[in-house]
Amino acid sequence: MKxxxxxxxxxxxxxxxxxxxxxxHMPVPFGDDVSAIEFDKGKLGVFKTDMLVGKTDxxxxxxxxxxxxxxxxxxxxxxxxxxxxxxxxxxxxGVPRDLNQENIEQIGKGLNAGAREYGxxxxxxxxxxxxxxxxxxxxxxxxxxxxxxxxSGARAGDIVAVTxxxxxxxxxxxxxxxxxxxxxxxxxxxxxxxxxxxxxLKEGLSLAQTGxxxxxxxxxxxxxxxxxxxxxxxxxGFMIDRLPIGHEARQFANVNNLDPTxxxxxxxxxYELMVTVKxxxxxxxxxxxxxVRIGRVTRKKNLxxxxxxxxxxxxxxxxxxxxxxxxxx
Amino acid sequence: MKxxxxxxxxxxxxxxxxxxxxxxHMPVPFGDDVSAIEFDKGKLGVFKTDMLVGKTDxxxxxxxxxxxxxxxxxxxxxxxxxxxxxxxxxxxxGVPRDLNQENIEQIGKGLNAGAREYGxxxxxxxxxxxxxxxxxxxxxxxxxxxxxxxxSGARAGDIVAVTxxxxxxxxxxxxxxxxxxxxxxxxxxxxxxxxxxxxxLKEGLSLAQTGxxxxxxxxxxxxxxxxxxxxxxxxxGFMIDRLPIGHEARQFANVNNLDPTxxxxxxxxxYELMVTVKxxxxxxxxxxxxxVRIGRVTRKKNLxxxxxxxxxxxxxxxxxxxxxxxxxx
Lengths: 329, 329
Hints:
Structural class of chain A: alpha+beta
CATH class of the largest domain in chain A: Alpha Beta
Radius of gyration of chain A: 19 Å
Distance between the termini of chain A: 28 Å
Order of helices and strands of chain A: HEEHHEHEEEHHHEHEHHEHEEE
Helix content of chain A: 25-40%
Strand order of the largest sheet of chain A: 7-9-6-10-8-11-12
CATH superfamily of the largest domain in chain A: PurM-like C-terminal domain
Number of strands of chain A: 12
Largest interface: A-B, 86 and 86 residues
Oligomer: homodimer
Number of helices of chain A: 11
Strand content of chain A: 15-25%
Largest sheet of chain A: 7 strands, mixed
């Protein structure tokens, strides 16, 4: 019998999903970033719930205000990746006994700040006692069925693009968790990318409007994992010929003698969108939304990183609970 | 600065809610059992999220299957109390490292069983590593705005009624947690009431259809607390002249020399509905739904239990996290 640590987060989700009877006519299949129900012809209620756990999701130096804000932002990001604006959120907070009234106020203020930044509201909450701080959020939004961007529509020939650059959060985690060093200004920028993540809501909504996006995902588990998820859901492969390495991540890699490819490809806690776009619409789409083209969808189902003349396999790894930990090593 | 233990669960929720900006035109006020958004004229999306935490919500002898089922049922019960059928649920599961694959399967099966019992489906889930087992569920349903039963509509003269009898769960918790004893058959029945709670969905839906219910709540925090919540939200008082003590709870009280009033009034983990009904409609309503009349709503804002000629105050206490614990004493 395998332990949960051997199984890892994705396998655990898979095992749980396998026990569930499927609702007939599910507008979004099991395992996508969000779930949905059709409540009117062509109109969907879109839902997501995800929890932030102190031990694994709150790095040192992240305040409770920032943690609560992040718990909201990570749910808003999942809806944004599907092209859906979050209207409202609920929260369930697990509170350890050593917190005090001011800590609770900070959690409340952080939840509110995260929601209001994206035009959403937190409508209510519940609390329980817990051994570790837990901030679970549920996010809700409404969309038209034909606007929804799933993971499953990528086709050979589509262009792969992202809304920003990668590696800064991995670098930030190395600073906050492992104590790696960098010049002050750089250190601040990189730490900030972990402590104050931003959801690409505006971009997600604009992309959904174009009708040209064939698949979309948020990159919170890292660029490599996100590519693998789309590849699996769409039954395709990728040829990535331009790795979108963040400027600061590259500087940090130089200072610390690290591999910038590793930092940007196999990180996590990044909330960029990764999308595939029909080639014919690429020009129109990239005029409206600031995107970085990184490669192409291929019929062949392997994932390849092309660096000059070298071709390297993109491995299915990155940020994963149970296998990675935020505990200081 | 007060610790969370001094504050207690309700004060913590109050502090969090105080930090939140109010969404304009909220169909359900802060602090009711559920939240809602109006997505079409007169049509509401109704939401709830609540988490079950191992340390405080899973008593000894409750299996993981039962715990997962309970996490679903307690959310369905909150929607049922508002007259809303749960269509779909999501879950976020916090998994400690000592669980194995079979444990995860049991959690998945329990989630599914709880949902299917009430015609709902679990649409998806997420997991994180956690120190203690956490099963957070979010429930969604749809209703007409004029069908929603809030906490705030009780008026002097209304009849107070419940969907069943109280005290069995308190007795069951005393058996499971404190090791109190009782004859085998009685012990089984009482333990079962804790391990396999049932949501009063059918009753909630029927009650909402009558249009005669002025306020409603589920009694998961105990009968006394539920009365106090309605009293506060509706700005009324109660005269309770018939305490609905469960037959088995009374037997258990006899055997263990306990006060059956205490057991039934100040318990918790019970999922009966407590409603107030317009007097003129009482006969019609009680013909359609099996209800136990327990008293009357009063203009005077105190809560009184009438026992023969004696009048006792009903205190605002019962099951509350941080103040009560399931840890074996």
